Automatic annotation (TrEMBL):
It comes from Senna tora. This is ubiquitinyl hydrolase 1. Pfam families: Josephin (PF02099). The keyword Nuclease does not apply. One of its GO terms (molecular function) is cysteine-type deubiquitinase activity.
Length: 164
């Protein structure tokens, strides 16, 4: 797998501090001790790598995500603890990505990447995430692209929960 450290903790912390200054907010975008970052930090970091990132509107359901199109690089997934809506405790970030025509769950909590059997299994998983208060970020390989599709080549730079 071509997962690698694409961002340093100090780089992500800098993005988070800049976000706080830009919006003149006391609200934190990260926990400097744990390395947990919110969606805004992830989106800025991915855009710095030339990726287009769209926060997916959960009201559309998973039917609005075109997994077969040629533009989607992957999906950053935010899950929340059972019984909690909105992810106030921080939740967990992971990713789903298609590699050589096969979709994989790239969750750092798993021992190894887990392949999905087909696109319908991917949709069921993503639907479960949305139904349980989670969120999806659609990641396209370029800043000008349409992130409603998918692609089996290229890199998805994923930030997983804690970057050490």
């Amino acid at each position: 797998m071509d997962q690698r450290r694409a961002f340093s903790r100090s780089g992500l912390n800098k993005i988070a501090r800049n976000l706080q200054r830009t919006i003149n907010s006391e609200e934190g975008h990260y926990n400097p001790g744990s390395g947990n970052y919110d969606a805004n930090v992830l989106m800025v970091a991915l855009r710095k790598k030339g990726k287009n990132v769209d926060w997916y509107d959960a009201r559309r359901g998973v039917a609005g995500i075109n997994l077969e199109s040629g533009t989607l690089k992957g999906i950053v997934v935010h899950t929340v603890p059972p019984g909690e809506k909105g992810g106030k405790s921080g939740g967990h970030w992971s990713a789903v990505r298609r590699i050589n025509g096969v979709w994989y769950d790239l969750d750092s909590y798993l021992d190894d990447e887990q392949p999905f059997g087909n696109s319908e299994e991917v949709r069921e998983y993503l639907g479960s995430v949305l139904n349980n208060g989670g969120h999806l970020l659609l990641v396209n390989n370029n800043l000008l692209g349409n992130s409603r599709g998918s692609n089996s080549s290229g890199r998805l730079f994923v930030l997983i929960a804690v970057i050490s």
